[in-house]
Amino acid sequence: xxxxxxxxxxxxxxxxxxxxxxxxxxxxxxxxxxxxxxxxxxxxxxxxxxxxxxxxxxxxxxxxxxxxxxxx
Length: 72
Known about the structure:
This protein has five helices and no strands. The protein is mainly α and 72 residues long. It is globular. Helices cover 58% and strands 0% of the residues.
């Protein structure tokens, strides 16, 4: 599952909006928002595009895109 909190922190740090990500990956705003919020599945291709846009290192890919949430 995507690490929504950390992705949103990166967006803020890089002064980017969901609209910017949506345009970059070629998806609608609403679809991109659902993906980033973990409400819709994200393809590997979309994750790699977001990784490049946000400057995420390959070694950190799992932290941002394969995050395991704790169930309490």
